[in-house]
TrEMBL record:
This is DUF3987 domain-containing protein. InterPro entries: DUF3987. It comes from the Bacteria. Residues 54-76 are annotated as: Disordered. It comes from Salmonella enterica subsp. salamae serovar 42:r:-.
């Protein structure tokens, strides 16, 4: 939990910034909509008067007043939408509603039991589509249909027993549908009995600050896309050397699928794609100006 808070600090700061922007836009909206209502009443009275006393009207005709009212009515101020980028304890409806507003987001939890016991842990459709870039059909609260192209990152920290209980849930359906195959797994080795009294974290803080600066810069670049929900993708090209490494890696994986690692063949089958994604992340993190 401590590490998660430190690593994720720029993201939570960014969320606070987005919320402050939302509060500012909401305050402006309240003033705009009140003025809009006042003007609407004035135009309605003008049209009503023209209907009741058509012979007494001077200047603008009834048709002109109607046109003004229609135009004004069609320009009602729209209430700003609050963006959510990080989800932890949510329902499927809240997730899809949120991703309808901003299609990029993540399940980020340092207490993953919330996810495993929550409402969304078996909604593999949108979760898998969020990994592969597929289209998800969503029905809004007002009954209208919309298509969402979610881009979803899932980062879950939990105790080994909680994770294993989830893996066995539903006779391994999370594994069979490919949901688990999209994860990268790691397990921290316990240091109980071997902990030192080191209290000098200056080197770690220095590295963390450099990491935070880069994350903040990338988030700043993405802010316009996030607030408008209009994202542009860059296509990266593998070099000849990278293609050779990818081919060799694929051959090694295929050999393992048929031998000692057949019990995790679903995970191995997607490991090449995961490796390419990690390479792309490292590439853009270090220099996102090249292809």
């Amino acid at each position: 939990t401590t590490i998660n808070k430190q690593v994720m600090a720029p993201f939570y700061e960014f969320m606070d910034e987005l919320y402050a922007d939302y509060e500012h836009r909401l305050s402006k909206y309240k003033g705009d909509v009140e003025l809009w209502r006042i003007k609407k009443k004035v135009l309605e009275r003008a049209v009503s008067s023209a209907y009741k006393h058509p012979d007494e009207e001077e200047g603008e005709s009834v048709e002109e007043k109607e046109k003004k009212l229609r135009l004004h009515t069609s320009n009602e101020p729209q209430k700003p939408k609050r963006l959510t980028l990080i989800y932890e304890d949510t329902t499927l409806k809240a997730l899809t509603d949120g991703m309808d507003i901003c299609s990029h987001g993540g399940f980020i939890s340092d207490e993953a039991i919330i996810f495993f016991k929550g409402y969304t842990n078996d909604k593999f459709g949108i979760l898998n589509k969020g990994w592969e870039g597929g289209v998800y059909a969503h029905k809004r609260a007002d009954g209208t249909d919309t298509l969402i192209k979610p881009c979803l990152t899932v980062s879950l920290m939990t105790q080994p027993r909680v994770a294993k209980d989830y893996f066995r849930k539903g006779e391994g359906i999370a594994k069979d549908v490919g949901f688990l195959a999209r994860f990268l797994f790691s397990e921290a080795k316990s240091t109980i009995g071997n902990r030192t009294d080191n209290t000098d974290f200056s080197r770690s803080r220095k590295c963390l600050n450099i990491f935070h600066d880069r994350i903040r810069a990338l988030l700043s670049q993405q802010k316009e896309y996030i607030t408008s929900n209009k994202f542009s993708k860059k296509t990266l090209t593998l070099s000849a050397k990278a293609l050779a490494v990818k081919k060799q890696f694929g051959n090694e994986i295929n050999d393992k699928i048929g031998l000692e690692s057949s019990h995790i063949k679903e995970i191995l089958s997607k490991s090449g794609t995961n490796a390419a994604r990690i390479a792309a992340i490292f590439h853009c993190f270090n220099d996102n100006s090249s292809n």
